[in-house]
């Protein structure tokens, strides 16, 4: 199982999905409801990503604190 290849494939799929949402948001043909939903999905994803990054940063800080106490 080539995890690197899977990650690259997953990244491409995510990029395409985001581009699709951006296209919907900027489309003159899309209904207001579709534009709002696409915007909501992007914003929700950004919020979740920010929260995950914050948690990861906190974990790293805790690990550093634990290492310092072990010394």
Written description of the protein model:
With 71 residues, this protein is mainly alpha-helical. Helices cover 89% and strands 0% of the residues. The protein is built from two helices and no strands. Helix 1 packs antiparallel against helix 2. The longest helix has 39 residues.
Q: Which secondary structure elements does this structure contain, and how are they paired or packed?
A:
Layout: H1 3-26, H2 32-70
Helix pairs in contact: 1-2
Brief overview, please?
By secondary structure, the chain is mainly α.
Number of strands: 0
Strand content: under 5%
How much helix is in the residues? over 70%
Ends apart, CA distance between termini: 39 Å
Low-confidence stretches: none
Q: What does the average pLDDT come to? A: 90
Biggest β-sheet, characterized? none
Order of helices and strands: HH
Structural class: mainly alpha
**Shape designation:** elongated
> Treating each run of at least 4 consecutive H or I residues as one helix, how many helices?
2
CA-atom Rg in angstroms: 19 Å
Keywords:
71 residues, mainly alpha, elongated
